[in-house]
Amino acid sequence: MNNIRGWLLLLIIVSYSSHCFQANAALFIDIPPKRELRGVWIATVVNIDWPSAAGLGAEKQKQELIQQFDNHQRAGINAVMLQIRPSADAFYAKSKEPWSRFLSGKPGQQPTPFYDPLEFAIEEAHKRGMELHAWINPYRATFDLVAANTTSDHITRQKPNWFFTYGGKKLFNPGIPEVREYIISIVMDVVHNYDIDGIHFDDYFYPYPEGGKPIPDTETFRQYPNGIHNVADWRRNNVNLLIQMVSESIHTEKKYIKFGISPFGIWDNKKNHPRGSESSGLSGYRQLYADALKWLEEGWIDYINPQIYFPFGNPAAPYEVLVDWWSQHTNGRHFYIGHAAYRANENREGWRDRNQIPNQVRYARKNVHTQGSIYYSSKHISNNTAGLRDSLQYDLYRYKSLPPSMPWLDSIAPEPPFGLLARVAENKASIILHWQTPPASEDGDEAYGYVVYRFNEGEELDINNAQNILHITYDNTQLMFTDNMVRKNGHYRYVVTTIDRLKNESDPSNARELYIE
């Protein structure tokens, strides 16, 4: 009997030890990556996300945007795609196009009291350690055909021959050379005048098909064929010309500004193109004339962000198939997945599983060619649709992260800060850190910000583990940090690193070690 008890006790111990090992191993494996783009789209067209209604006063607009930014910061978001040009109009002051009616309630009317929404958004995003990418719709000129919704000097009235009407909207005609030059000038106004981190285009190139209606550009094709005889190839070339010119213009002006595009989730279907994916939905290549593979292969864009707004196992467009397909065609550029946060509580096949999007993120992380996620849209994260914000905040994004670096734009790391000092505050409830500004890096770049790391007693000084990140700032004048998350009898070590504009990171500073009695 004693032998039986002994064997039972041994089995319990072995089982318990095995369980603990597996739990600890799972916890170790599931640590979120230190480098990951975690973005959200803030749509302004027809007031989808912000402001909540056209014509709100400036202070109310600011309050709403700050609330969304705070929600996103808590959720672990580190990049905002803010729609600043919904339809040849502007959510920013330094524009040759009129103020958007979705901001002020009336086309051409500035906010009251006056402020520059884009400048405000950039400042508030950077305060929170979030990048701000200016989301521009290149070809949509009006959202409807109501004359009162455009100003008398709107570009559609100044240059009516630049546009065609399709689907109840006026659209720039991409085949006209002057149109391309004009759109580039709009983009470059933003690049010149604002401290943005990126320029972002979405999936609207040639219009989505409507009832089999042909695109009315036959005369343009005849006038500007560019030596191309097939109208589909000609349309794709028109888009390609714009993408190439925008890319070259941006990177010539400011090397650190990222250029990214969010195309439709399917490039093309394999049944129609040998390089296509095993899918059967609408084709961005064939219906929208958006050849995203060309943009990647030519190196014109810094990231691709396809809108894979489908669940696992979808018959026409399975999420997992499209992720795997895109990951094989990045050509060394970043691949971020566009997730359909707006569908997270739908009562449809695949979306009834409220873990659909969290599981999509987990699946993407297993793919070495996937560097992040962007969610459409902001209000569905802020409102915690289907518990998605909770999943991000308390699980998937529970540790801070840096956006992945882009060595083709800048591969030189900054110099580390020096002279790190640490002292226990008088109340013994916090530790105060100070450091010195590093010299310029080898390429002349000054420090852009800093990352503060903390390690408990006995822990390795591993700055590659996201658990150790305490604070990220994009303010190079912030040379101190107060750690309020300390406890009595705590034994801590700290280091600080420098980051440059493209989030290259320095070696760590000198370490400081403190014990709180």
Structure description:
The protein has helices at 2-29, 58-75, 101-104, 117-127, 155-158, 177-193, 218-223, 231-253, 284-287, 292-298, 319-327, 356-365, 378-382, 388-396, and strands at 37-42, 79-85, 131-136, 163-166, 169-172, 198-201, 258-261, 303-304, 334-340, 372-376, 418-424, 431-436, 449-456, 469-473, 480-483, 491-499, 512-515. The protein has 2 domains: 37-396, Glycosidases (TIM Barrel, Alpha-Beta Barrel), CATH 3.20.20.80; 418-515, Immunoglobulin-like. A hairpin with a 6-residue loop joins strand 11 (418-424) and strand 12. The chain is globular, with a radius of gyration of 25 Å. Helix 2 (58-75) runs parallel beside helix 4, helix 6 (177-193) runs parallel beside helix 8 and helix 12 runs parallel beside helix 14. The protein is of the alpha/beta class and 517 residues long. It has 14 helices and 17 strands.
SSE blueprint and pairings:
Blueprint: H1 2-29, E1 37-42, H2 58-75, E2 79-85, H3 101-104, H4 117-127, E3 131-136, H5 155-158, E4 163-166, E5 169-172, H6 177-193, E6 198-201, H7 218-223, H8 231-253, E7 258-261, H9 284-287, H10 292-298, E8 303-304, H11 319-327, E9 334-340, H12 356-365, E10 372-376, H13 378-382, H14 388-396, E11 418-424, E12 431-436, E13 449-456, E14 469-473, E15 480-483, E16 491-499, E17 512-515
Parallel strand pairs: 1-2, 1-10, 2-3, 3-6, 6-7, 7-8, 8-9, 9-10
Antiparallel strand pairs: 4-5, 11-12, 12-15, 13-14, 13-16, 16-17
Helix pairs in contact: 2-4, 6-8, 12-14
